[in-house]
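Writing this down once: the sequence line spells out the residues, with the fold written below as integer tokens. This is how one looks:
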Amino acid sequence: IVPTEAGLILVRRAKEILTQVENAKSEIRNSGGIIAGKVSIGVLPTVAPYFLTHVLGSFIEQCPKTQVFVHENTTDQSLQLIESGKLDLGIVSLPIRENGFETETLFSEEMLLAIHPRHPLSQKRQIFTDDLRSEKFILLQEDHCLGNQVIGFCNQHDFHPRIVFECGQIATVQSLVEAGIGISLIPQMAIKASPTLIYRQLELPRPKRTIAVVTRSKRHQKVAVQEFLKHLRQVGKTFNLLAPNNHLIQTSEKPKA
């Protein structure tokens, strides 16, 4: 069933009316000065376990009457749900290709080379992208933007990674690296302490990813959503300072003269 042009106008107006009704309810609930309501967010699986621990606890303390619903989705899935109104916002990795959305950068983080301690690269003072050309890569599957970002970084340096495994979870990627099966590039927020895993910085320019919050353009946000966005901005400013296990990163040392 396909709506006519008049039907599309009616659907658009109906959505606006429903939004206005929800906003009115939200304003009534918040009229006593206590923020209440619901916030539905879509978050990348490579972000949710690491970043949200710094966001949700402190937000609930500030707004105890607000319910937060978290959906772990790929970027494309979150954008579709934001477009349909099922999600209020998404936490994604830039860039996004779709129009009609507003993005606001929260923070950027480095991508680190994850290798087994007995891997030959662990003995090098400096690691360059040329050192990675013949290595076996373990990446996330294609529907995860992190895997595509690693491939894009390699392509920028004129080679395609030799992919031996593709996984659905970043924890699986790291487990396979720990087993000595291959190497990978891991976001700084996801590094962990392990006797069978080390992280090394690449030489400049180092790979990075940028995490942003995305909302639907020209859509009025409920008071609870506005408060959550404000809190996200505050946490994003200091997140790199809060990131755990930064001491596990081995920096590249230049040979001494």
In short: The first helix runs from residue 5 to 29. Residues 163 and 198 are 20 Å apart (CA to CA). Strands lie at 36-43, 65-72, 89-93, 101-115, 136-140, 162-167, 184-187, 198-200, 208-216, 249-250.
